[in-house]
Write a structure and sequence with these properties.
With 391 residues, the protein is mainly α. It has two domains: 49 residues; 304 residues, no CATH class. It contains twelve helices and no strands.
Length: 391
């Protein structure tokens, strides 16, 4: 009997994918060096590179089903996928969301996000406090939490008061150190979110610790910039609107536009996360935008309904007493992380619906795009119990 060398466990499959990804990237670097007549410094032996090139050349092209079986298989952008294709995408996204244990992983990400919230607030207030008074910054941050339940608002309010009492307005060595320490601590939560998004895209992490930490720090700083932008939309714009003679109708329309812009900023931030977090060739922006918009709308509705439920029907204060605010904030963070990861599943399965190259750069044939969801199409198009065998 021929030995197919098929991995028998999930751990072995992951290890094999890590080796194959590292070999492909080493081979790509060697090819670039050969083209540019640059000395080879890839860290891969020539025999490993040759073996990788031979295996890729001999690998048969993945079969591509027709439109009848996989509607949208030739879609150039998500809007080209017909309704039947989207029904398949939603079903697969839900199945993959559960098969990847995202409800449990989302809880873990929410826990680390909770630990990162207050270091992130310290960094934000410290940076913004260089150009505005800490008390003003704290009031503006409080205005951002108006849609949260009252108990969660109270928890944030108490922590903001404590932070602003110890904040200064001058750039000192101690302030720089505290900002860097807060950013490093907050980036831990971002790093766990990167890991979860990798799982949603069926990617294995091969980047070095330095690259992953730099990406986490970059996304954390981006999140702080996002908060500063929302300050302008939530705190500054109303004052400008009050000073303009817009009338009642004009003021209402301006407020609607303000919140639409705010949701747009949230969707844009999610698109950046979905594009940069997975360890793969970056997808084109249109292949990460749709899931971002869908999740943003659902998140806004769910946050509003959750706030109404906790304030009017929930009994968290009676059940949890003094820690009710902590519980409510963690529940809201869990709902947020759950939806963010579900959006990643939607984006990944949308790429899985088409055989067209969804990655940046010149179009490459399937199997050479260095992205699991772009290198193959969904098989089967609709999930079955056999689609996710247990290891």
């Amino acid at each position: 009997m021929a030995d197919t060398k098929r991995p028998e466990s999930a751990v072995e499959r992951i290890q094999q994918r890590v080796r194959e990804k590292a070999e492909r990237r080493a081979a790509a670097r060697v090819a670039e060096d050969r083209t540019g007549d640059v000395p080879e410094h890839t860290g891969a032996s020539s025999s490993a590179v040759v073996a990788t090139e031979r295996r890729d050349a001999e690998r048969p092209a993945p079969p591509v089903p027709g439109e009848e079986k996989l509607p949208g298989v030739h879609a150039e952008k998500p809007t080209d996928i017909p309704a039947k294709g989207w029904l398949q995408i939603v079903k697969r996204s839900w199945a993959e969301h559960n098969a990847d244990n995202m409800p449990i992983i989302g809880a873990g990400v929410a826990f680390f996000a909770f630990l990162a919230v207050f270091p992130a607030l310290i960094a934000t207030i410290s940076i913004y406090g260089l150009v505005a008074s800490p008390d003003t910054v704290a009031r503006q941050i409080e205005s951002l939490s108006d849609q949260l339940p009252e108990s969660a608002q109270s928890l944030l309010r108490d922590q903001l008061t404590s932070i602003t009492q110890n904040s200064g307005g001058a750039l000192t060595v101690s302030l720089i150190i505290s900002i860097l320490a807060a950013l490093w601590s907050a980036s831990g939560g971002t790093g766990n979110l990167i890991t979860a998004v990798n799982l949603a895209y069926d990617e294995v992490e091969t980047r070095s610790f330095i690259k992953r930490k730099a990406l986490a720090l970059g996304l954390t700083i981006g999140a702080i910039i996002f908060v500063l932008i929302t300050f302008a939309l939530v705190a500054v714009v109303p004052a400008v609107l009050d000073a303009l003679p817009l009338g009642i109708v004009g003021t209402i329309l301006a407020q609607v536009v303000r919140w639409v812009l705010l949701l747009g900023v949230v969707a844009g931030s999610l698109a950046v996360l979905y594009r940069l977090a997975p360890d793969r060739d970056a997808p084109k922006i249109r292949w990460v935008s749709l899931g971002s918009v869908v999740v943003t709308v659902i998140w806004a509705v769910v946050s509003l309904l959750f706030s109404l439920y906790v304030d009017n029907f929930g009994s968290y204060d009676k059940t949890y007493g003094a820690i009710a605010g902590v519980i409510v904030l963690m529940l809201w963070l869990y709902l947020t992380c759950y939806l963010v990861l579900f959006g990643a599943e939607i984006n990944s399965e949308t790429e899985h619906q088409t055989a067209v190259d969804t990655t940046e750069g010149d179009p490459q044939p399937m199997g050479t795009r260095d992205a699991t969801m772009a290198d193959e199409v969904a098989d089967p198009p609709v999930p079955t119990k056999e689609s996710h065998p247990k290891s």
